[in-house]
Amino acid sequence: MTRSCLRSIALSLILIALLPAQKEVERHQHDVPVGMNDVRSLVMDANAIRSIVYNTGSISGPGVMGNVLDLVWHGLGYGYEFGFVTGALVPSALNPADSIRFIVDGFGSSNRSTADGDFAPDGVTKWGWLPTLRYSNPVTKEIANNRDPSTWPAAWSSWQGVSGPAIADLELLYEMSDSTDAEFPYYPIPADTMRRGLGLTSETRYYQFAHPNLEDILFTFMTVKNVSPKPLTKMVAGVLGDPHIGGPSNFYDDAQDFDPARGMFYSWDPDNLSDIPALPPGYFAYRYMATPSDKGVTSASALIFGGANRPKNDTLMYNRLSEGMFSDFGLYSKDPNSLGDYILIMGSGFFTLAPGASERLGTAYLFATDLAALTERADLVDREYIIRFSSPAPTVAITSPLPGSVSDASSLNIQWTDTALDNDTTVSLYYSNTVNEQWKQIAKNVPNNGSYLWNTASLPDGILYKIHIVKVKNGMTAYDSTGGYFTLNKPGDAAPEGKLLSPRNLMLVSGTLPVTWLAGDADGDAVNVTVQFSADDGGTFTTLQGGGNPG
Predict the structure, then answer these.
(1) How many CB atoms lie within 10 A of CB 195?
(2) Which among 270, 419, 246, 439 is positioned nearest to 339, based on CA atoms?
(3) What confidence score (pLDDT) does residue 290 get?
(4) Given the DSSP bridges, would you call strands 358-368 and 11-19 parallel, antiparallel or unpaired?
């Protein structure tokens, strides 16, 4: 892919969950792409990530401003282009005994670049994802988003989130169709031979949260629907991405690896150099959180960019998205010379899409300063996904312990309520005792009877305890927590606790800077706090405030 933007490292998540099929195949009037002229964009900048996205399934793209719009995190761009690809094995209309490996991509749609994505021989007609009118306002060239009502269809009086109101600081919504993809002799709707492709639409939603736990994460979800009367019995889906670590002139020495325990692809630059000398690059990754049939990641490939290794190579893409296709990872640790410009492809297993049925594919892109922080953030994504995207039903609510309460015993009775307390379902319980609320398991899949006696004898005293409960029923997830903190204070003297809340690491600031913290003592003793700063990377410190604990 022609290099015209700066590049660095980040992390992504991908989620795919089965949605119920409709009894009838729905073909609404908007299931026709308007064409290349209806391609819209939006600059997402509601947290520490800033990037242009397009209503063709792509994040960043050829020709965007490097280190400005290309998946930028703390001043460096990390992505040349990332995009959603899906496909299926289908029979040829010329000879049903022949099978076609048919891939649908949106690469190149944003600027008519034919280098990587599929186009017709005329070089103009996109073979792949193009936007429909369903969620568009023809007057604006921005993708519909919750912050700007002028981007909504005229019929909307409020933002149309999954559950109604917006749940994130910035959300966007668009729909794509593959109906112009006439690359192969396959006709998804026999009564309409002008409708080509696989007979798919995709409702697409992106989310950015400004919360400190989520400021380095971008969530994306694609709900793919079969609007044809033909079943698709061997489908594949995933994300294809071309990271650039260190800038547009520094992409040639990237390293890649795969974390099988977390289902996470990640990239970094071992020499820690970028095109902007003052900005060392971080780590970039993405991962799948839920997949059809709960298969998890079933394939992951890192291919040197160039030649046939492009999204428009249908056979290569289908094969690499198929189950069991894993590259030889850990290349850098085995051979430090195995660096280069890689594209990453991660698949989620074969699945079937009946007429009218849908599958949801979600992705989280995450950034961190080093590998340790990256893996911690990846684990954080697990619980944040549960918290932020839990279903409206079933419901579950913790009633004890209460925020502000103090437990001085060696055990604690956790209590909760549920709309249907019964032993046919289970819950999982977790606790956290730090400000960043890293979950630790108490018990997994215990009977949903409303109470659990938790042995706390071996736990340290502390003022930052929370309980978290998760219930899953019929594929839907419910979550609750104690909200505020409670205290464990067993016999004996406990050490005081303190945590700096702001400023956060890597913040760029000017003028007056608020400094806030949380400090206290499980025994209830008064705590004195001294605030110091260093301007020479920890060499010397100057006291800003001493004594007292105003926070």
Answers:
(1) 21
(2) 270
(3) 72
(4) antiparallel
Q: Which residues of 398-432 are buried (b: 16+ CB within 10 A; e: fewer)?
A: beebeeeeebeeeebebebebeeeeeebbbbbbbb
Measured CA distances, 299 to 59, 234, 240, 321, 529 (Å): 22, 15, 12, 6, 51
Residues 6+ apart with CB under 8 A from 123: 112, 114
* Contact (Cβ atoms closer than 8 angstroms) between residue 446 and residue 428: yes
Tell me which DSSP letter residue 369 carries. S
What digits encode the pLDDT tens for the residues 497-540?
887 777 766 555 667 778 887 788 888 888 888 888 888 877 88
Q: Which DSSP state fits 98? A: S
CA dist 43 → 36, 67, 147, 518 (Å):
19, 13, 12, 35
The answer to whether 32 touches 199, Cβ cutoff 8 Å, is: no
- Please tell me the least confidently modeled range out of 17-31, 174-188, 275-289: 17-31
pLDDT tens digits for range 101-149:
999 999 998 888 888 999 999 999 999 999 998 898 989 999 999 999 9
Cα–Cα distance, 34 to 39 (Å, whole number):
9
Q: Return the percentage of the chain with pLDDT > 70, whole number.
A: 87
Strand partners, 264: 287
Residue 65 CA: distances (Å) to CA of 52, 79, 134, 220: 9, 11, 29, 22
DSSP 546: -
Q: Would you put residue 67 in left (φ > 0), alpha (ψ -120 to 50) or beta?
A: left
Pairing of strands 406-407, 486-488: parallel
> Cα–Cα distances in Å, from 178 out to 125, 131, 479?
12, 9, 36
Going along the chain from its start, the domains and CATH numbers come out as: 11-389 (no CATH), 396-488 (2.60.40.10), 498-545 (no CATH)
Q: Are 55 and 39 in contact (CB under 8 A)?
A: yes
What DSSP state is assigned to residue 326? Answer: B
User: With contact defined as beta carbons under 8 Å apart, do 269 and 283 qualify?
Assistant: no
Question: Would you place residue 100 in the very low, low, confident or very high pLDDT band (cuts 50, 70, 90)?
Answer: very high
The average confidence (pLDDT) of the chain is 86
| 186 — pLDDT class (breaks 50, 70, 90) | very high
Q: What is the pLDDT of residues 307-330, one digit of tens each?
A: 999 999 999 999 999 999 998 776
